[in-house]
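Dear support,

I submitted the protein below through the web form. The confirmation email said the job was done, but the results page showed an empty box. After a refresh the structure appeared. I'm attaching both so you can tell me whether what I see now is the final result or a partial one.
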Amino acid sequence: MLIAPLTGIRAVAAFWVFTRHFRTELLDAFPWLHPLGPLMNSGYLGVDLFFVLSGLILTFTHEERMNTAYTWKKTVGFLWLRIGRVWPLTAFVLLLFGLVFVVEIVFSSNPSIYVGQLDVWRLVQHLLLIQAWSTHPLDWNGLDWSISAEWIAYLTFGVGVVALGRFAAVASRRTLIIVAALLTLPMIIVGFGMQDDTILLFDKDSYSILAGIVPLRVVTEFWIGALLALLLRDRIRENRPVSFPFPTILAVLIIAGIYIATALDPHRWVRAGVSTADQFYKGTDLIASTETIIVLPLLVALVATLAVCRRDPLVRLLSTRPLVLGGKVSFALYLSHPLVIGTVLAVMPRVAGSPPLTIIVVLLGIVAAWVFAWVLWRFIEEPSRKIARRMLPASIEV
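What the results page shows now:
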């Protein structure tokens, strides 16, 4: 399996999310990034890319072994490995957020903002990874909603892996393609009906999770990835790569699709109470069109072609050592970058009016986000994953 480009694209997906959250600071330092506004606004699509990747990689890794003399213990083993992979780092970053809240309560001039964040019951829900299963505003680490969503996908995989194996045995390639294509439709239809800048997550005119959107989004996209694994498995194992540069072409089409969807948005559906000053920052529109979800089939095709194409410029780029390492630490970057951005926001007023210092602070923020992510990956995420694997009985092959 061409694991290198699939790992490298994780770095791109995580940094895409980062640019959405860091876009105003990037525009402060580099005003010439203004044309990239629609691309940065659409950074939430990096999460959709993660969901598809997760389904493909986990299915390719676990489906056959779990279906060989299947027992319920294999599902438990699979879920245990997923706990070891995502829970320790998620919990550790949550504790860091709690520490930040306590520090802000002690030293902030308006501590009431942070007192409200210290909701112990919500912390328990975050630690149980169920915080995004119900309608609620994002809190604590607002980004770990997607980890909560992934748990829904893991549970469906654990109970549906046998059905997946039987389906793989009888379904033709055409059937797999058709079903995968049909699974892209629910989020496209819903996305076209959602309010702009709800980032395919929030309810209308609020910052609470839209009822039902999390399971719809993660389950459809995860199982698209699972179907891709079935579709591509033989080609990957037989080492029959595709020579045509599909990934590079698809990447260009994805970028073009985002700009076209933004430009052709029939109306800018802005949240109630959002002023023009809030919508535009230094001339850049910060409201993302949810119609950009139209590129989902292209994202799916990109993941598929990255797995089987070799002679392609994008595959070669994503397979370079820096991007592969970036892919390995991408989960840590995704979870922790709000902490780094918060630090940058605290420093920015001190350098206001000095373009050179602003550039330095922003660049240091980008570097710090990646370095901090590497530290978390090296000393929390990887050791935890290895410990969980060693604790799994040898009799359970998943």
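Response: this is the final, complete result; the empty box was a page-load delay. The first strand starts at residue 280 and ends at 281.
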